[in-house]
Write a structure and sequence with these properties.
This protein has a two-stranded antiparallel sheet with strand order 1-2. By secondary structure, it is mainly α. 75% of the residues lie in helices and 5% in strands. Helix 1 runs antiparallel to helix 2 and helix 1 (23-56) packs antiparallel against helix 5 (112-145). Keywords: Membrane, Transmembrane, Transmembrane helix. The chain crosses the membrane at residues 39-57, 63-81, 88-107, 113-135. It comes from Cellvibrio fontiphilus. This is DUF2069 domain-containing protein.
Length: 146
């Protein structure tokens, strides 16, 4: 997908990569993007449901704790409805905080809900990271076709 282009003085330090996406590459990219978006949306919804179930089925329901757990994820809904690669990138940064919070809980309590939450955060992180990249390539392809 990339080609080397050298500056006029032909020194190796000035070699610049140019991205070339063919129509055949675009077909594969579109399939990957569609699948990545679906995995992201499903794991996003599953994470919201799992966080809500964890709060509701806990010892006592605390609305403030539930809001602290869910609101950072709800911020990304507009960007997930109308896909933008920056939304997926920022979602990855926020998911790192969830991961940092969940791993010590998982290692301390070994509860099934912490396993599920960690798995959902990990799947969503990987899917959002790849979808962000594929969406960048797709937008580049569409802009180069005009």
């Amino acid at each position: 997908m990339t080609q080397d282009q050298q500056a006029p003085n032909n020194t190796p330090e000035t070699t610049k990569k140019i991205l070339v996406i063919t129509d055949a590459d675009a077909l594969v990219l579109e399939k990957k993007l569609r699948l990545g978006t679906q995995v992201c949306n499903l794991s996003y919804l599953a994470l919201l449901v799992a966080l809500s179930i964890n709060s509701l089925l806990g010892d006592k329901f605390n609305l403030v704790h539930w809001l602290i757990a869910v609101v950072p994820l709800l911020i990304f809904i507009p960007g997930l409805i109308k896909p933008q690669h920056r939304t997926y990138s920022w979602l990855c940064f926020v998911l790192l905080m969830y991961f940092l919070f969940l791993v010590p809980l998982l290692m301390s309590y070994w509860s099934l809900i912490y396993w599920v939450l960690t798995l959902l955060v990990t799947v969503l992180f990987a899917a959002a990271m790849m979808t962000s990249r594929w969406l960048q390539y797709w937008n580049y392809y569409l802009s180069s076709k005009q």
